[in-house]
């Protein structure tokens, strides 16, 4: 039961500590350490707040267990990277809601980020905190702090700390020393409402248990230490400011005395009093600033980019909103100040004051007029530069886009006009293939020009009808078209050499190969090769398929079209040799049920073979008296089986 109580107390205290830290990001408070830390998201937020740095990318809304584990693993690795040792804890423990390990992890973070900076006389953070508590309460007879547990049961230690640092908030000597809960509740209320210390503990956590949880108390009291240490720093800073002001007051008195004496000198030597000095200084400063600004405009240069021109335009706009308005106000103040000077001199019937010629109102108005003229010139220069840069960007993109489109059109035209034997076409297409690949670099340059135009807010371009997206799409089509044509010609040359296949078979095999060649590489991976064979009715188990693939690909990584066709020739010959021979005789006979010697010679069968066939095949005589040879009976006699007219064994 005692063990269960400390878990409950730490769960509540550490959860409040966690929520106090997370409040910096307006994150909804955690309701359960086991559930809310399981995703790893709150743990990453906590570490980013404590470490004041980003942990990088992570799954902000994890749904899968593996995503949650990856988040927690990132957090644990960050903790270890800060030199904090972790024992017997892994990401799965947090995801699975192991409360004891979660509390241990949070205690480790509290030690490092809340308590570690407390030090005194070379002691550990915890020992230093205890020593601080002892020293602050040493003058209170009823209090003897020896630990972070039973020493705090009656609440007097908390009240004493408040009385020591803020006696205006509590009357310690008026407390009922026997009212443990009342004293504790009063101290907690003042600490939260007046000092701003988070309410991590409840009265029941301290007063209703024989031995309050040490870690929870250490965590809470550490906030008291930091709060009162801050108050002490503020008081120290206030004393420094007070001492500084005392020192500076003497200097200020001397400064004021100097200014009064200077004014008196000016009044004795010339009817120009202290106001006249201010007028002279202010007017001189305004003219100097105006001159410097005009000089800056006259020497300004452009680097030729839109970014630079736009930046100078923004700087010019900022000048008109800030510095120029300040000058307008200052100019008006100067006019008013000169009027006050003249009024004051008139009041005392002194000689009228006329400022130096370069500070006269007439000269100030003249210089202001020149400033406005230079300002207008500067505006014109910037606007013209921006227009020129935009025009240049339009033309640069248009020239590149039009040239690129012309290259693509040339490729398409050459593909469509291909003629002649396959070898000749293949040489042309290979040249096109070599030439079209480097165009990708030009496409990258066009993308950069397009980005520059977009950055310059260029939405229209009368010099071209193409956009980058269109050119990228058309380039993909052209590259794919060349690749397909290259594969087709390679395959046609291979197919042409396969004379022992019928055109129908060849077309079927080529169609199947193209269908499963998804990446247009003119080759099939093992899984594609297996699917292609299955579509042709050749099904193998996994082990057999792997052996067939290795044999056909010559232990390569893929099967080429030529290897695929040769394999199909072998398989077709092995499975259908009788049917093929029968169909061949039928084609030689032009569909007749018999073949003549003329048919055999017309099909370019060698003479020796013709003589052998004529002497062994059954003779028949057609209705027109023509002598022929019954190839069907000849095949049946050789095979020992009857053939139907479709060439199928019976």
UniProtKB/TrEMBL annotation:
Residues annotated as domain Calponin-homology (CH): 8-114, 123-229
Keywords attached to this entry: Actin-binding, Calcium, Repeat
UniProt key word Nucleotide-binding: no
A GO MF term: calcium ion binding
CDD domains: CH_SpAIN1-like_rpt1 (cd21215), EFh (cd00051)
PROSITE patterns linked: ACTININ_1, ACTININ_2, CH, EF_HAND_2
EF-hand domain mapped to chain residues: 504-539
Stretch forming the signal peptide: none
Family in the record: Belongs to the alpha-actinin family.
Record-given protein name: Calponin-homology (CH) domain-containing protein
């Amino acid at each position: 039961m005692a063990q269960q109580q400390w878990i409950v107390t730490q769960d509540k205290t550490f959860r409040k500590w966690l929520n106090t830290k997370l409040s910096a990001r307006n994150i909804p408070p955690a309701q359960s350490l086991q559930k809310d830390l399981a995703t790893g998201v709150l743990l990453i937020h906590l570490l980013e707040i404590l470490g004041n740095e980003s942990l990088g990318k992570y799954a902000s809304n994890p749904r899968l267990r593996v995503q949650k584990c990856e988040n927690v693993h990132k957090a644990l690795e960050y903790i270890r990277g800060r030199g904090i040792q972790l024992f017997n804890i892994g990401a799965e423990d947090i995801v699975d809601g192991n409360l004891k390990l979660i509390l241990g992890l949070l205690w480790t973070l509290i030690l490092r980020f809340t308590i570690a900076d407390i030090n005194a006389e070379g002691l550990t953070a915890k020992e230093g905190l205890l020593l601080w508590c002892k020293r602050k309460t040493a003058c209170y007879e009823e209090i003897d702090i020896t630990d972070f547990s039973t020493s705090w049961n009656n609440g007097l230690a908390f009240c004493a700390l408040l009385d020591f640092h803020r006696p205006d908030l509590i009357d310690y000597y008026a407390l009922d020393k026997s009212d443990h809960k009342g004293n504790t509740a009063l101290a907690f209320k003042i600490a939260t409402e007046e000092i701003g210390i988070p309410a991590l503990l409840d009265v029941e956590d301290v007063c209703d248990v024989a031995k309050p949880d040490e870690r929870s108390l250490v965590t809470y009291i550490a906030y008291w230490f930091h709060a009162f240490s801050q108050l002490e720093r503020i008081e120290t800073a206030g004393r420094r400011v007070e001492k500084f002001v005392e020192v500076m007051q003497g200097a200020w008195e001397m400064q004021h005395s100097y200014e009064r004496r200077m004014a008196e000198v000016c009044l004795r030597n010339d009817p120009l009093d202290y106001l006249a000095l201010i007028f002279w200084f202010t007017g001189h400063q305004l003219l100097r600033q105006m001159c410097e600004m005009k000089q800056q405009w006259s020497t300004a240069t452009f680097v030729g980019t839109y970014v630079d021109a736009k930046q100078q335009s923004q700087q010019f706009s900022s000048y008109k909103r800030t510095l120029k308005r300040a000058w307008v106000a200052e100019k008006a103040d100067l006019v008013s100040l000169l009027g006050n000077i003249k009024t004051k001199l008139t009041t005392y019937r002194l000689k009228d004051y006329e400022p130096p010629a370069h500070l006269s109102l007439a000269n100030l108005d003249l210089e202001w007029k020149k400033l406005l003229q230079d300002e207008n010139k500067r505006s014109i220069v910037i606007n013209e530069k921006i227009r020129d840069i935009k025009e240049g960007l339009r033309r640069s993109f248009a020239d590149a886009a039009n040239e690129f489109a012309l290259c693509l059109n040339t490729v398409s035209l050459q593909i469509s006009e291909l003629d002649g034997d396959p070898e000749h076409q293949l040489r042309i297409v290979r040249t096109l293939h070599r030439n079209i690949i480097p165009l990708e670099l030009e496409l990258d340059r066009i993308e950069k020009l397009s980005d520059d135009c977009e950055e310059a807010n260029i939405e229209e371009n009368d010099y071209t009808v193409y956009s980058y997206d269109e050119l990228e799409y058309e380039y993909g089509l052209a590259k794919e078209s060349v690749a397909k044509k290259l594969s087709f010609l390679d395959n046609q040359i291979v197919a042409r050499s396969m004379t022992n296949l019928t055109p129908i078979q060849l077309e079927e095999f080529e169609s199947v190969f193209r269908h499963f060649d998804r990446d247009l590489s003119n080759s099939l991976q093992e899984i594609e090769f297996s699917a292609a064979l299955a579509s042709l009715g050749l099904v193998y188990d996994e082990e057999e398929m792997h052996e067939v693939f290795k044999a056909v690909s010559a232990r390569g990584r893929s099967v080429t079209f030529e290897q695929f066709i040769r394999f199909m020739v072998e398989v077709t010959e092995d499975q259908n040799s009788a049917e093929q021979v029968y169909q061949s005789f039928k084609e030689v006979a032009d569909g007749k049920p018999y073949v003549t010697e003329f048919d055999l010679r017309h099909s370019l069968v060698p003479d020796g073979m013709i003589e052998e066939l004529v002497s062994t095949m059954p003779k028949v005589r057609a209705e027109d008296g023509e002598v022929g040879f019954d190839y069907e009976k000849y095949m049946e006699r050789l095979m020992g089986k009857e053939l139907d007219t479709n060439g199928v064994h019976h």
